[in-house]
Each structure stands twice: as structure tokens, then as C-alpha cells.
């Protein structure tokens, strides 16, 4: 931060500046710098190691795009694991599906979770208090290795693969193979994958790793204004073919059937995102 201006990198040589109105939290945890602030144009936001993670103005675009395509692809997702997702917004979206009986969130940084509970209620909407939800503070990689529990959906809501060392091992083929073993026979995983435009080589490595492990995969992206770029997502599926199943009428009917109310994702938009592809 320079005075009242937050500067974040969006590419190797490109930066985005945002005017800060008020800082609520600025602290260093065991793993990273945590800032919660109110900023011009985007409202309340969570910043980790200088990278905006979520903002009041557009977090729903990111979290709905991350969570619902994978959830809709599975015919009846009951057990869901989220790795990361400290602010609780991915958990919020998962719990909208009435098929979910258990939603487990594993985040490495307890300080992020605690700060989010206190300052980011608009983001988590009390999802931490849902009786179906459970939060474990642990290293996501170690947790999946050591815990042979099977899940229908595994959501990787991580910091960007190039923004810090915390999540780097969670973008590897070795990790995706472990995730595969922790999924049910028709299980689905999804990861956010940063920016394919600014970090094409990193993104390609992630896609190739997932393609090497899963029979079916899907790449899609959505513009996130507070990130300053189109954020990419990659799905890996053991049984369901995303492009064959995720059509407008199917998407809308499942959202209604499961009682899911969204602000951004619907059949038309998701089908368009899939058709758009990536840069």
C-alpha cells in the first residue's frame, strides 16, 4: 500500500491501483499478510499478500463460478470438501444445494478464518454456523494425504499458483492424483487457476496435469473486475462429461430442483462461459 492506494500485481509487469477508504485489519499471520479494507469501487475486501481475494462488489461472481458448475455436474452431491476458502463464501454457495449433507472446509490459516468471521459477514452469510458445515484448520495437502475420506465434490479455492508458496503444491499432478483417490466413483473436482492470459505457462501446466489424471475436464473463465483479469477455472470429472451435460435447460432445472438462488450463474451464462473458452 502506498498511502491510501493499494497496488496489486495482475501480471508479471502490470499493476492495478485501488483507492483505500478504510483499513479494518492489517496483520501478519504465520503464513501471510492479511488485510481487510473498504476500497473505492469494490467495498469491503480481503487482501492476502498484496492480492485481492474477494470484494463485496464482485465476490459472488467468482464464488458462484467456482462452485456451481462442479456441483451441477454431479447428479446428487452429498459430501463436499473445500480446500482453502477462508472467507466462507465458497462454503456459502455449496450449502445452497439441498442435496448437501456434509460440507467440510480445510484452510491452513486460522487467522484468515477468524478475521473473516468477524469482518466479512457479507461474504460468508453465517455459513460457518450451518449444522452441515465443519471447518478444520490444517494444511490442505497433508489433510488429503492423511485422511482417506471420500467426497462427491472437492473444491480447490486457493490463492493463485504464482502469488505465494502456500498453495503451490496444490496445483501439481501429484496432488490431483491424490484428489482423484478421495473422490467417489462419479466425483468431480474444480480448481481456480489464476490468469491464463498473464501466466499462460503456469495455467497450461495446471490443465495438462488435470488432463493426465481425469477422464473429462472443462476449462472456463469469467471476468472479475477487482482482480483486473479474467479468472480461469478447471474441472476434472471421473464420470460426467461437462460439455455434454452442462446445457442451459439442464442447469436451470437443477438449480430450481435444489433450491439454489444465485446472483450471477444461470443456464444461459454458464453455457456462454463454456462456449467462450479461454484466451
Automatic annotation (TrEMBL):
GO BP term, example: spermidine biosynthetic process
Domain named PABS: residues: 1-238
Sequence positions that bind spermidine: 63, 87
List of residues binding S-methyl-5'-thioadenosine: 32, 107, 139-140
Chain's role: Catalyzes the irreversible transfer of a propylamine group from the amino donor S-adenosylmethioninamine (decarboxy-AdoMet) to putrescine (1,4-diaminobutane) to yield spermidine.
Listed pathway(s): Amine and polyamine biosynthesis; spermidine biosynthesis; spermidine from putrescine: step 1/1
SUPFAM superfamilies membership: S-adenosyl-L-methionine-dependent methyltransferases
Gene: speE
InterPro entries associated with the record: PABS, PABS_CS, SAM-dependent_MTases_sf, Spermi_synthase, Spermidine_synt_N, Spermidine_synt_N_sf
Name under which the protein is recorded: Polyamine aminopropyltransferase
Coiled-coil residues: none
